[in-house]
Amino acid sequence: MAREAPTLSSVYPRDTVQPLGPSGNSASPESDEDNDVFLPDGIQPQASSFLKELPSYRTVQRRRSTVLESRERLLRSRFMKSSYGGSKQGFLDERADDSQPLREYAISIQQKRKIREIQNAQTKRTTGWVQWKENWKSCRKLADDTKELLYTMQLWRKDIRSIEGKFGSGVQSYFMFLRFLVLLNFVMFVLMFGFVTLPIAISRNTVFNSSHVVSYASDIAPECTKYKAAIEGLGYFHKYIFDLLSGTGFLEWTYLFYGYYTVEAINFKDHRYNIPLAYLLVTFAYLILSLLWIVKRSVEGFKQSLVSDEDRFQSYCNKIFAGWDFCITDESTAALKHNSLQYELKTDLEEERIRQKIAERTRAETCRIYLLRIFLNFIVVTVLAISFYCIYRTSIFSQEFGKQTFPGADMLNLVVEYLPSIVITIANFITPIIFKIIVNFEDYTPAFEIRCTLMRCVFVRLANIGVLLITLWTRITYCVFGICSLCGYNHDTYPCWESRVGQEMYKLMIFDFIIISAVTIFVEFPRKLLVQHCSFKPLQWWGLQTFEIPQNVLEIVYGQTICWIGTFYCPLLPAIATVKYFIIFYIKKIGLMKNCIPSPKPFRASSSNFFFLLVLLIGLILACIPVGTGIAYMRSSKACGPFVAFNTSWDIIGYTVNRMPPGLQKIFNGITSEAFAVPFFVLICLILFYFIALAGAHKRVVMQLRKQLALEGRDKLFLIRKLAELQTSMSKMPTTQSSTFDLKTNQTLQYLHPQKLQADVHV
Q1: Confidence band (pLDDT; 50, 70, 90) for 301?
Q2: In this entry, which stretches build a coiled coil (predicted)?
Q3: What's the pLDDT band for 83 if we cut at 50, 70, 90?
Q4: pLDDT for the residue numbered 28
Q5: Which long-range contacts (CB under 8 A, 24 or more apart) does 4-11 make?
Q6: Predicted confidence band at 756 (pLDDT cuts at 50, 70, 90)?
Q7: Residues β-bridged to residue 44
């Protein structure tokens, strides 16, 4: 006759099972009145039906029943295993369903040891699905440990935390954004160096028995293949400095620029490495990688921004009741965390004050503000038009100006070459100041002021690059008197036009770094000294500066857009950008700590992080336009570069596909055909609609749960009012009748305070 599996109550009576107190010891049972409502049955008398309706009572009962069921499952599986041997799968399934560690059960040490021995013996003999689940758990634990280790090794983690404590999370978001760009550019450099630069360097030095092949198209005129870089012999030291700043001279024919990569293929012992295909695929790879990385971080920032904007009261509660990190043991870290929370609360209160001010506007004030904004936006458009025209004229002058050879002309030639970069930098420096003055009169919230100023300045900076590139390409494709008939581009002025574009991007990158460093050293630091040590009234009115987040974000977005555009024409530009941003981090940090004061207009970091990445995404999209145009439509140079044998850089794709086996050609042609593209687009749209509908359903469920929480709060308030009325009525009764009103009501009233219930209703 089979024995029945024991339950928890039969093996371990309830009298012996005591809940653990805060110190880990068993909680001593108190009087029936003290534990009348909230302790399990068997230790105290049965609660009244009226008190059982309380949500808190039901919650406690549900939690206690869950714990008891888990313990019964554990003991039942242990009993079956010890009595009958049981199945291997059964014990592990019971343990897998139990989420509590074994040490938290109120059983003896001998019983815990026996269960542990059974579990260890069972683990050694597990196979199949159970073993796969155990391996999956181990992999997840390893991934979590690795993620935690990487977090502790994060670049500039302590510095960024210190900045957050002194200047708030908004300024901290800028430095985190800068760290992200350092990592992004480093990955871009690794891709370009590993797949393009390193193989060519190996082949040119005949390492691993390698050799490179150079071939030109047979139908190209010999005049198109003539290209001689402006390389001079030994000269004065200042000539090397000028070449280093302009990218010409000795630097033009190096791994830095496109023209040096005039290699069709690299022949190893048993393999042929296609350099043009690798060059083009790496370009696509770093653009797609940048897009995916930015979108991933943008989605995370959008979630935080959406949560913070959805319920402002919840934001207050989270900061006040759950904002402190109780793992902090260092006093300086605690002070930084305290300052950070204080700054975030100031931000919330300031935004709430501005919202209240906007809500109290009259109709006349609203009309006045909108008319003023229209007029100010007209001024903004005028400033943009003047800036674009100046860049256009200086770019044409710089391209048409020939090199002078008279003594002392080196400096003049350098200034003329840098003239477009100088004008762009001046425009980038002046326009944010004008926009900052204008936005003060438009009466926006602090967060929207940042966004509005940022979008205007982004348009200026990115459009300035666009004007420069358009001017360059009009000169490259400028075909008068038939000079483009032979090569398809102006080969007399630009025999290797890709290297010329790379030089322009290189000069913009170098000059931008020089300006950022010079402004911090020669403008911000002297301003602090003058304000602190000079009592001149205008200087005191000027005051100490604050950290202007829009302008600083624009600087690095502008530089990153230049890097994306220039990497195709200057393959090692990501390495320069990595070093540049690494140095800028310390320059900005020192300037912030020494020269700046906290901003009087605080702003939150959640929306700032998302908006910074959105602006960076705009820069990436705009950078893809000139790169894609140069790859797909413009004739490649016939005198330099890996695509000398093709009309355009894109032709390498068709050439590679035609050399594939027939089966792969059919697959590739099928994927790129309309018969595949249209159904694929429809499928993507259906998936998108599904996720939109799913998000809407989740939003409705969240709204229902919020309403349910509000109703629960009202129920509590109703119950406490009834209990208060009952207490009042019982106090007016004679002593003999009021003796039936025991201490349970007093205990319940003490537990459910009216102020607490009102707070629950608000939540």
Answers
A1: low
A2: none
A3: very low
A4: 41
A5: 5/76, 5/79, 5/80, 6/75, 6/76, 6/79, 7/72, 7/75, 7/76, 8/68, 8/71, 8/72, 8/75, 11/75, 11/79
A6: very low
A7: 41
Q: At 538, which helix (H) or strand (E)?
A: helix 537-542
How many Å apart are CA 144 and CA 406, to the nearest integer?
67
| Beta bridge mates, 41 | 44
Extents of the domains making up the chain: 8-21+29-130, 157-672, 692-762
Length of the chain counted residue by residue: 763
What whole-number distance in Å separates Cα of residue 498 and Cα of residue 398?
A: 17
- The residue behind tokens 């820069």 is 619
Quick: pLDDT tens for 431-476. Answer: 888 888 888 887 777 767 777 877 788 788 788 788 888 888 887 8
CA 664 to chain centroid: 38
The residue assigned the tokens 């540049």 is 580
Distance CA 34, CA 32 (A): 5
In the three-class reduction of DSSP (H, G, I as helix; E, B as strand; rest coil), residue 211 is classed as: strand
Greatest CA separation for the chain:
121
Side by side, the strands of the sheet bearing 265-267 are 211-213, 265-267, 272-274
Whether pLDDT at 38 is above 60:
no
H-helix or E-strand spanning residue 244? helix 237-246
In which residue are the tokens 């010079």 written? 518
In tens, the pLDDT along 392-405 reads 888 777 766 655 55
Query: How far apart, in whole angstroms, are the C-alpha atoms of residue 446 and residue 444?
Result: 6
Helix (H) or strand (E) holding 230: none
